[in-house]
Structures are given as C-alpha cells and as structure tokens.
C-alpha cells in the first residue's frame, strides 16, 4: 500500500461521518470534502494529531462552480477561420445557468505534512450561493491570512473570524469580484489619464465583449507517424 492510499484510509477511519467525502484521485492525490460546520475541528485534528501532522498550509483559493462544465464555444470541429468563427455567447450567466444550492462557491486548501511527507486537498463549500461564508483558518495556520483575503477579493467568499478581511489585489473602491463566473471579462469600468483634468478618470467599458475561439488543428500529416505523408508535405 502506498503512502497516499494509507493516508486516505487513515482519514476515512479517523473522521468518518465528519467528512462529506474522501477520495483518492486519478493522480494519486487525497481530496477530502468537509462540511462548513465541521471544518475547524477537522483542520485542527489534521494539524495536531500524530497520524497526520499537516503543519503547513500551502495555499487557499476560491472556486466558482457556476456553469461548471459549460463552455461558450466548441472545438469538436475545426475551420480555417480560426479565432473569428462565431459562437453563441452566454449574455447573462447568472440568470441562464444556476448552481446547485450550497454548491456554487468553495474554498480549497492545499495541505502539507513536512514531517510525514503527506499532501492533501481539502474543499469546503459555502452554504449560501448569494452570500458565501466559511470559517477562517487563520487561528490554525497563520499563513492563511493573505490567502483568504485574496479569495475574498476575487470570489467574494467571506471568511468569518478573519482578523483583517479586506481587498488585497483590486483597486480602492473596486465593485464586484472579478473571478466570479458572472463577472464580465472586460470588467465594469475602464480608466485613463485625462490631460485636461490632470487626473485619472473612470468610464464605462468601451470594449464590446466577444468570445474568442482558438483555431484547433486536429489532423496534420506533419504530426502523424506516416513518413511518406511527411515527405509529401515537405515536397509540397
């Protein structure tokens, strides 16, 4: 039994019904899902108990599962027009696509045990899609401070108990959360320096949103294993 399989069994045996799931992924990565009301007690046990010793929090990131698995463009068929080929744009993603209740926003934690050389991914879903909230883990791993601020800034996930939850990447007065799936790719406003007013001004976005589709070449003799076809292509 590998270390990853052993860790998976240990977590399942120790926490049982305290977890929503505990799976071993196809790339040999332990992925656990924790209910929001159990997250602090589970994380404390994962950090402190000798069988786990997850002393290091590598990262915390937000995820928006709105329109998960849905794309505005398809690449099953390729055409020569490349980026210019048209597709049907999803104009209002929040209205047209709905996430399952309590399954839109998640906070994901990358854990490392430097003592036992264990790694694990933990995911906690916020129960309210309109006002996503989870508990802050800054009391367990102090390094979560800036990670949680970044997730709050970009996804709007509120970390209750955080000592200083404010934006960390966007500008002062920024409205919205730019990594949400329903946030426009071109943003809400654009800024420029006005020489007459001698200051930076904000204006409505002048860029027309459009979906860019990459050109996909699916069959080309240059990349096939047929040497005769390659020679014919080179001669041409």
Using the CA coordinates, give the radius of gyration: 23 Å
Count of β-strands: 9
Query: Beta fraction of the residues?
Result: 15-25%
Shape: globular
Distance between the termini: 56 Å
How many discrete domains? 1
CATH topology label: Beta Polymerase, domain 2
Q: CATH architecture, please?
A: 2-Layer Sandwich
Biggest sheet character: 5 strands, mixed
Query: Helicity level, as a percent range?
Result: 10-25%
Total count of helical runs of at least 4 residues: 5
SSE inventory with pairings:
Elements: H1 3-15, E1 21-24, E2 30-33, H2 39-48, E3 56-64, H3 93-96, E4 105-113, E5 118-125, E6 133-135, H4 144-155, E7 158-160, E8 189-194, E9 199-204, H5 227-235
Parallel strand pairs: 2-5, 6-7
Antiparallel strand pairs: 1-2, 3-4, 4-5, 8-9
Task: Give a summary of the structure in a few sentences.
With 236 residues, the protein is an alpha/beta fold. It is 20% helix and 22% strand.
Protein traits:
Beta Polymerase, domain 2; 236 residues; 5 helices; alpha/beta; five-stranded mixed β-sheet; two-stranded parallel ribbon
